[in-house]
Design goal:
This protein is an alpha+beta fold. The protein is built from 6 helices and 14 strands. The strands form 3 sheets. Strands 3, 4, 5, 6, 7, 8, 11, 12, 13 and 14 form a 10-stranded mixed sheet that branches.
């Protein structure tokens, strides 16, 4: 592992966006990055021209961008996906053999995945689990729903910190279905903040400070959390060559850290 590995710099001419993506882990077979919010992992089925991480990475490898040339990369493929707005650990393979090994693991319940979600409301118990099968919602493309005909989906949850009307929850998905954590938390009555697809509203400072909040004239309040508050915090998986367990961690993104700071100040847990 190289803790000082330089960041990967990507840009999209089409949208004039720029991303400087931290490298969390790197060896001869693996490259793990801290995926930013609001960047697709793979091409969008409904908009093929929308910027996505893998296309940007492949273009960088093909054109010999400095970050790719310095690593001698000629192959890079993602072993799993994260949602458009989800941040955190994303694992890539540097060769096809390693990709097959990782894909086999992700197809099972071997990897240990830990997410953090900032949710609406405070769960009744400190630990709980949701075991509900999921299937695509054909009435609303891009959305999943609970269905007895769906695929088995199991997630366990642990409350890390409580606030008045909110909670920071640790999530452990045993299976890897699309939107699994998001749907399960919605079904539990605790949608994730700013999850517009699954009933999550934005977290506003005015809602925390109540009558003490003052906004300057001609200014529009910006949410503390305006993007899905779900973060892939850690991943444990056997190394494709050595078989030893590799643990990769990503720090909480700044928006969630800021939201937690204000929640601790203005929304302490009720007695």
């Amino acid at each position: 592992m190289n803790a000082a590995a330089p960041a990967i710099k990507l840009s999209s001419r089409a949208t004039s966006e720029f991303w400087e993506i931290p490298v969390l882990h790197e060896d001869d077979q693996l490259l793990a990055i801290d995926k930013p919010a609001r960047l697709l992992t793979s091409p969008d089925r409904y908009d093929a021209e929308r910027p996505n991480l893998m296309r940007l990475l492949h273009d960088g490898v093909a054109t010999g961008r400095p970050w790719a040339a310095a690593r001698g990369l000629n192959y890079l493929s993602n072993a799993h996906r994260l949602d458009f707005e989800t941040t955190g650990v994303l694992l890539l393979a540097k060769d096809r053999v390693s990709l097959v090994s990782l894909a086999n693991h992700f197809g099972s319940e071997v990897p240990k995945k830990t997410y953090f979600a900032l949710v609406m409301g405070s769960p009744a118990t400190d630990e709980f689990s949701i075991d509900l099968p999921l299937a695509p919602d054909f009435n609303e493309p891009g959305r999943m729903r609970v269905s007895r005909l769906g695929k088995k989906s199991f997630t366990s949850f642990k409350v890390v910190e409580r606030f008045a009307g909110a909670a920071l929850v640790e999530c452990h998905p045993r299976t890897g279905r699309t939107h699994q954590i998001r749907v399960h938390l919605m079904e539990a009555g605790h949608p994730i903040y700013a999850d517009r697809v699954y009933d999550g509203r934005e977290l506003m400072l005015s809602a925390l400070k109540h009558g003490d909040y003052r906004l300057k004239r001609q200014r529009e309040e910006r949410p503390l959390i305006g993007s899905l508050a779900l973060h892939a915090a850690s991943l444990e998986i056997p190394h494709p060559v050595t078989g030893t367990i590799v643990r990769i961690e990503a720090p909480l993104p700044k928006p969630i850290q800021v939201a937690l700071k204000y929640l601790r100040r203005y929304a302490p847990p009720l007695a």
